[in-house]
Design a protein that fits this description.
This protein is an alpha+beta fold and about 400 residues long. The chain has four domains: about 80 residues, conserved putative lor/sdh protein from methanococcus maripaludis s2 fold (Beta Barrel); about 100 residues, Efflux pump adaptor protein, beta barrel domain (Elongation Factor Tu (Ef-tu), domain 3); about 80 residues, Beta Barrel (OB fold (Dihydrolipoamide Acetyltransferase, E2P)), CATH 2.40.50.100; about 90 residues. The protein is about 30% helix and about 40% strand. The chain is built from four helices and 21 strands. The strands form four sheets. A six-stranded antiparallel β-barrel has the order 2-11-14-13-12-15. A four-stranded antiparallel β-sheet has the order 3-10-8-5, with no helix packed on it. Helix 2 runs antiparallel to helix 3. The longest helix is centred in the N-terminal third of the chain and has 47 residues. It is rod-shaped.
Length: about 400
């Protein structure tokens, strides 16, 4: 009896060992759940936007330019200076100095001056000759008039004497005019020999043109600061009102066709809170821009008006514009992170009874966070975010603890 009991005990121990080993293998070979992040499908408002880097600018910028060629005095105003139209002097322009004269030019100009002096002397000789002829003509006329009274000479001879006097007077006047002309030529030749003056003085009487601000505003840029010669039309400064800002964004032409005047927008990533804006104009023509990768792109300028301005924003600040191209108040949405491609179809893993079910999803509008679902999902479904290659249809899953 004792032997039989011992045998059963041994058999029981062996059976328990076999069962334990089998349970260990079963536990080791069991299907382990994949830890995943889950999101619930909801129906909430949705907006699709186009985001593009943009730039602020003063709406009306006035360029102050040199009206004439001359020497520009050093510009005293600085960026940020408030100016008043017609009163604040932005810049002052003096006459240009004559060029330096080299030896050859001086010799030529000296010879021209000597020639002008000689011409003046010749003109004076001609004047004396004309005056002598005038005196003779007057004497002849007086003699002819006396003889005509006694009828010794004919009336025609008296007329000739009178005509000769008039010709002599005309020659005298011409000689005087010639002297004036030659004297002016001499002064011109002497002026050409004048060398530039020495160091400039601060005598305001030497300045001939003061350029004043065209409008009330603030100096945005001073383009020419130092004293220097300038040509007519040279830009000196830019003036505008920083309180009247607009935003310019260059959109790809494929995005610009979706934007229309009046579309709402937000100005973000400028260093402050988002600012509301509205599209005022979409330019009718595109321009070519080469991207950082060397690709030619057709872009269109979109002009936005700020609904609210921030005094910290200024001219030519870099910002980002989020322009709304579609918006709905109640849209079934799925996170973009849950979608992946299977062939040409969008697909997501939906968790049902603890397992991942590969589900084909039909989507429409999409932004950078979510996509509009038109078929395949419903409110309350839980989808897997960022599905890994460890997942397949029917995989056991478990939500990762927060």
């Amino acid at each position: 009896m004792a032997g039989t009991l011992s045998t059963w005990i041994k058999r029981g121990a062996m059976a328990a060992g076999v069962i334990a080993i089998a349970a260990g293998f079963a536990y080791a070979l069991r299907e382990k759940p994949v830890m995943v992040d889950l999101a619930e499908i909801t129906s909430t408002p949705m907006k699709v936007t186009v985001r593009e880097e943009a730039e602020t600018r003063v709406r009306d910028v006035y360029a102050v330019s040199a009206p004439i060629a001359g020497n520009l005095d050093r510009v005293a105003i600085e960026e940020g200076t408030a100016v008043t139209a017609g009163k604040t002097i932005v810049a002052a322009i003096r006459p240009l100095d004559p060029p330096l004269i080299d030896k050859r030019s001086r010799a030529e100009l000296t010879a021209a001056r000597d020639a002008a002096k000689a011409a003046v002397a010749i003109a004076r000789v001609n004047l004396r000759r004309a005056q002598t002829g005038l005196d003779q003509a007057r004497a002849d006329l007086e003699r002819a008039q006396a003889l005509a009274k006694t009828s010794i000479i004919a009336s025609s001879t008296l007329q000739k004497a009178n005509t000769a006097l008039q010709e002599a007077e005309a020659q005298t006047h011409a000689a005087l005019a010639t002297i004036a002309l030659r004297q002016a030529e001499l002064e011109t030749a002497e002026a050409r020999l004048i060398q530039p003056d020495g160091p400039k003085t601060n005598d305001p009487s030497g300045c001939c043109v003061d350029i004043t601000a065209p409008v009330d505003g603030v100096v945005l840029n001073v383009l020419v600061k130092s004293e220097q010669p300038v040509q007519a039309g040279t830009k000196i400064a830019e003036i505008g009102d920083p309180a009247k800002l607009e935003v310019v964004a260059g959109l790809l032409s494929s995005d610009a066709v979706k934007v229309k005047a009046g579309s709402p927008a937000e100005i973000v990533n400028w260093g402050g809170p988002p600012l509301k804006a509205t599209v005022r104009r979409v330019d009718p023509a595109a321009y070519t821009k080469v991207s950082a990768l060397g690709i030619e792109e057709q872009r269109v300028k979109v002009i936005l008006d700020l609904d609210e301005n921030d005094p910290r924003l200024g001219h030519e600040f870099r910002v980002y514009a989020d322009i709304a191209i579609w918006k709905e108040d109640d849209v079934l949405q799925v996170p973009i992170a849950a979608l992946f491609r299977v062939g040409n179809d969008w697909t997501a893993f939906v968790v049902r009874d603890g397992r991942a079910a590969e589900t084909k999803v039909t989507i429409d509008h999409m932004n950078n966070l979510s996509a509009e679902v038109t078929d395949g999902l419903q409110v309350g479904d839980r989808v897997i975010l960022y599905p890994s290659d460890k997942l397949s249809d029917g995989s056991l899953v478990e939500e990762r603890p927060q």
